[in-house]
Amino acid sequence: MGSQQVRLSGSGGQGLILAARILASALVAEGRNIAQSQSYEPVSRGGLSRSDLIISDGEAAFPLADTLDVLLILHGDASRASTGLLNAKSLVLTDSDLVTDPPKGRFKTVSLPFSETARLLGNKRVANIVALGAIAARSDICGAGALEAAIASNTPPKFARLNVEAFAAGQNLCKAEVPA
Amino acid sequence: MSQRINLQGNHACALGAIRAGCRFFAGYPITPSSEVAESMARELPKVGGTFIQMEDEIASMAAVIGASMGGMKSMTATSGPGFSLKQENLGYACGAEIPCVIVNVMRGGPSTGMPTRPSQGDIMQARWGTHGDHPIIVLAPASAAEAFSETSRAVELSEQLRVPVVVLLDEAIGHLVETVDLDAIPETPEVWRKWAEGPKQDYEPYAVTDDMVPPMSRPGDGYRTHTTGLTHAPNGFPTQNPAIAEAALTRTTTKLDLHRERYESWRVRQCDDADLLIVAIGISARAAQAAVDDLRADGVKAGLFRPVTLWPFPEEALREVVASSGAKTVLVPEMNQGQLVLEVERVLKGSAGTVGLGRIDGEAITPDQIAGKAREILG
Prior knowledge:
CATH topology of chain A: Pyruvate-ferredoxin Oxidoreductase, domain 3
Number of domains of chain A: 1
CATH class of chain A: Alpha Beta
Strand content of chain B: 15-25%
Number of strands of chain B: 15
Shape of chain A: globular
Oligomer: heterodimer
CATH superfamily of the largest domain in chain B: Thiamin diphosphate (ThDP)-binding fold, Pyr/PP domains
Helix content of chain B: 25-40%
Shape of chain B: globular
CATH architecture of the largest domain in chain B: 3-Layer(aba) Sandwich
Order of helices and strands of chain A: EHEEEEEHHHHE
Strand content of chain A: 15-25%
Structural class of chain B: alpha/beta
CATH superfamily of chain A: Pyruvate-ferredoxin oxidoreductase, PFOR, domain III
Largest sheet of chain A: 7 strands, mixed
CATH architecture of chain A: 3-Layer(aba) Sandwich
Order of helices and strands of chain B: EHEHEHEHEEHEHEHEHHEEHEEHEHEH
Largest sheet of chain B: 8 strands, mixed
CATH topology of the largest domain in chain B: Rossmann fold
């Protein structure tokens, strides 16, 4: 398998770095190597936040992202920040409520109600887990089983059931997706 | 059994130090180095070690020196403004030959600069930050795995050679999480400084020995010792006798020359037939690796020379690689306005042309930037 690059972006406090850590831990369980980097602003909440994963079989020569295979945009603050790293093969997943102006180009953009789904499940903070469900269903980045196990081992037990529901809901969203 | 984990560069520094026997950490957390202190606070108590959060960077450096004189392997971690504050006490450790390790995770500067953004602006400060001629070793890891192994090596070298060792990371490497196989990092036997032995009445704390590394007195062993920041004679007491002062200062620098093979370390990639050689450290070296691979795929003969021990600079090795490859030009990408390139120029003395490539906007240099510059140079 070649190397792949994933960016999870949005606003500080949306759990993007946690989501990247979960994805990274699932990928290592699948035998792959990851390099994870992050960028956030010097504020407690809000501001542009992102975490990148370079997925490879050995140590990545360059561990930072330069061409994205999958880009998640969970908040409008991040809608334009990564456009320069997209190409015709990129898949962009955006939040249909919080990203009103998704990037447009030769790449494929899919708009899905991550935050709305989380809200209907009772906690808007699981939008990151809903998004991981969509990434599992919509891309070949990581298997759903490994991700499910990684979610359980990287989050508090009291949220276990909510997270399982959020992950399943994210996978289900992709069955009825509409192009942005 | 492989023990593959995702490990952050800063956490790796802490774990590497602990593996080498570091049992004391005093620090004043500062972005982007705070995770080193965080890890030490969590891990040191588990192995009977001591973590102290001090009132500032100056005090933390002083505590590290005191702990080392008390017989502990000790370390601190900091970034730009904190590294500046530590320089006076760091000079004391250089002058009094106190083993200790200082992790400096470089961020944008000067002053408070850009706390969360990467930089390599402390390359010269790491060598010459404290005043006066002084011995110091600086190691520059370029991955999470190397942050682990090089911090271990820093502890060992500081003990073997009685010299402060700086582990110099940039923010990108400090905060980078990479899959590391801890079992693949070889276990090395624990290294301790030489302790004073033999008749107590003859003991001199700064005696001139064959290896130029004087044995230290272990507290409680009964050897009479004296430690000062003033220039001192072999008996440890201050002197301004020109001959003794010159001999004492010369010994500390001769000491490092004598043990070059112990601490020198570098890596090469595709250098044998390189027309263009790239010299880089840290995240810039990772970008250069990718640039070399891209250029080679296009038939451009580029190679990378990466100093792992940055100071003293592996000068003979670089001269040999340049001579044997026949490279006409050396490109030095670094995240500052041109520091490493000056050392490369000094070392090569015109035997190959040198071209700098700086970046100071708080973003890492990319493989495309380096490959583009390489193509421009080779025409």
